[in-house]
Fold each of these.
Amino acid sequence: MKIEMEIDDEFFDGINADLKEQIFDDEAKRQLLIKLAVREVSGWISGRNVYLSLTEQYTEWLMELLQIFYPDDPPSAERIFNSFSVPYGRAAYISRVLLETQQTTWREKGRDNLARGLRNKQAEAQDHIDNGDPTQYVPVSLDKISYRELSVIIDELLAEDDTLPTPVNKSTSPGRKTVDIPSQLFALIIDKIEG
């Protein structure tokens, strides 16, 4: 069935500016949004979609909305709060649920981002090693998903050799952490990622 409709621009007043721009500028995203809306409303009317809570409903919708509008970004409380007007506490919970349900995908992306971040600083780390200072820290900025993967890998490395120096958290900003990583760990971490 083909349905055509017009929606007044005012309908989009109050929507996050970035989302509004994507909706207005990208026909494919607009079609995906319309299909989601029609499917959810018809599912509600027919009784196919029965949510036990608003949080469950938001989680289901956001699983698709984030893939439509931010396919390359991991679910985060900040993104959900800022883009979709979900209260922050609920947004934090939903982002954790989405990360768990999409764990394999985001772990792969986290490891890829971690490897990229380390490779960007690997020459600096190697200079420290070549100059006889393998424990010299090199700051690396990581997103939350990459940081989680770094933590897992560091735990594995320390289980194998508890004499290795450990990274130090340097600073935190929304969605990112800067970590000082000892130069000698760069090759070991990259080997674990690629291994």
Note: The longest helix spans residues 103-130.
Amino acid sequence: MPMAVKGEVIAGKPPLFGPASARAALGMEAETYVARAGEMMNRARAIVRDNRVQAIGLFEVKRFRLCNHFSRYRIFKHIQIFNLVIQHAPASSKVVAKAMKIYCIELGDTFSRYTNRWIGLKSNDWTDYRQDMLLTTEMMQASINAEIRAIRQLLMISSLYAD
């Protein structure tokens, strides 16, 4: 028999992420991380697409900044979202959160390998770098876009979770 829903509380227990305002704040923080990563990648892709080889010296610093940004985002979503869902949500949501967490780790490893692959980038590597950079950042953008949609869904249905 389904539990009766009374506003934000099911069976006398608060929702997983707290009140709607807390879920909204988590969602906004995740959206901010994704938007910032997108901005960083878009600026770098514009430089690479314009074949501005003379800007090659900037890319190492920018790659490490983006890598650090992705690391902060990973810590945020794992601790603030995925771990809570895995610990307290129904089985179907746990499966989703576990899969998202594993995929996130794999994606982070992929980006770290990309970052490390181009340490000490030289102008004679430009053609290979350009292709790798465009493919990697496009894949990362598509992945974080899909992930933020899934995070929105986890947060939206979290009002139904009870400990």
Note: The chain has one domain: 14-160.
Amino acid sequence: MSKMSGTKDLPRSLSKGLPLWASTKALVYVTGAYTFYRTYTEAVGQMQNAVGFQGLQYQYLTLITLLGNLIAHSAASAAVLLGSNWLWDAKNLLMCYVAPLEVVVSLVYWPVMMYDRTLVVPKVVEDLGIVSIWFDLHLHAIPTLFALADFLLYSPRPRIGPRMYACVSVVYTHIYWIVLKKTHYMMGVYPYPFMDLATETQRKLMFGAGTCLTCGIYFGLCQVYDTMHRRQPSAGLQ
């Protein structure tokens, strides 16, 4: 393995052996963390002003993945700058779930938005006009690009195997479902208008399909990673 590829597993060696490469990575991570922080806080602030409730950001998958990206990039920034291996490992583990979910958000949002914006943008948000195209890109495109760049270029090869990944995906899908049902009980509506148009069975099928899509994207990204870095796929943790 080359010296540069080996540094993916040891951020401390980046700081000592390859200062330019370490500085570039740190700049990318710090920029990402700052961008996601600004976007997240602005989105939450606008939501609270529009709806008048706190904590409702956790019903939006877009903001959940954005928060995950913020945490991952903040941890990566500290790991590269401080040479912390455990922070680096924590970021790598978190990004295994954040990156595929960001891809799911983009794949679902943009086609539906171009077909009928009212299906994915709540009426209260649309009436207030608080989501510009630039802000839309910061929510549904830029985080995906940062996550993919980290997953494919800066991180070591993911070691989570199919069974473990599927089990964890099912768990957080159920948690998200519980959160949605709770907020629906409080507000009387679902966060995305298209969910109100669907039946309960259709909503459950959507969640099942979303879980399968997330797992498929993760395995696909692992294959792309192996191709880019010319590595043999590993079995990973089962």
Note: Residues 3-229 form one domain.
Amino acid sequence: MSTVIAAYLRIAPLTPAAPVDPMALRNLLYGQCGPGNGVEHIRVRAGPHGVDIIAFIDGNDPERANEVLRQVAEKAIISTTSLHLWRIV
């Protein structure tokens, strides 16, 4: 039986920026998921202080799950012009 771990992080702009569409960001994040990284589901919620991201990742190692989500978010930030001023906080 497979175990799924929830991983969480928040991204926020370094300076005031246009809001990010949660569905568009979710699609960008899914686009950065590689085969075998175990990402099952991603949820995105925009708020006044940034965007909360929760991913459900196959496995039983919370540290690995957090690292997978961090890598996916970093790739999305690097590859998307409108997110270049955003960072993981």
Note: The mean pLDDT is 94.
